[in-house]
Amino acid sequence: MNEPASTVNITFQSPARTNLSRASSRHSRDLKGVPTSTARKMARDFTTYKHEPSTIDGKRLYKYQPLGGRETSKSEVSVALDFGEIVALEVERKALPRKVS
Fold it and tell me: Please, are residues 6 and 30 in contact by the beta-carbon 8 Å criterion?
């Protein structure tokens, strides 16, 4: 059985660089086609880091094969997350078509 795909919406704030502008800015990124199990793990890890930072490494690497869309290759996607820079992480699960009889 195929696992459903999710979109992971990440908002992050890069740290201010001392030699550049002192202002930091927010950015967002949408990761589409993330297997739901991987997306949920990202969300769990982020929540754990925010509530109990001493129990989890703040920098994590996630690897997955994208689902859905035009991605038909076996290419693997690697995403490195620094929870110290992430402001929000939300998982949107794709609505699966329902069979109507």
Answer: no
Report the alpha-carbon distance of residue 82 to residue 32 in Å, rounded: 19
- pLDDT surpasses 50 at 98: no
Residue 75 vs residues 30, 53, 63: alpha-carbon distances, Å: 18, 32, 10
Burial 60-84 (b: 16+ CB within 10 A, else e): bebebebbbeeeeeeeeeebebebe
Could you identify the residue written with the tokens 């929000």? 88
Summarize pLDDT for 14-65 with one digit per residue, the tens: 776 555 555 568 899 999 999 999 999 999 999 999 999 999 999 999 999 9
- Residue 71 token pair: 């991605």
Domain ranges of the chain: 5-15+25-93
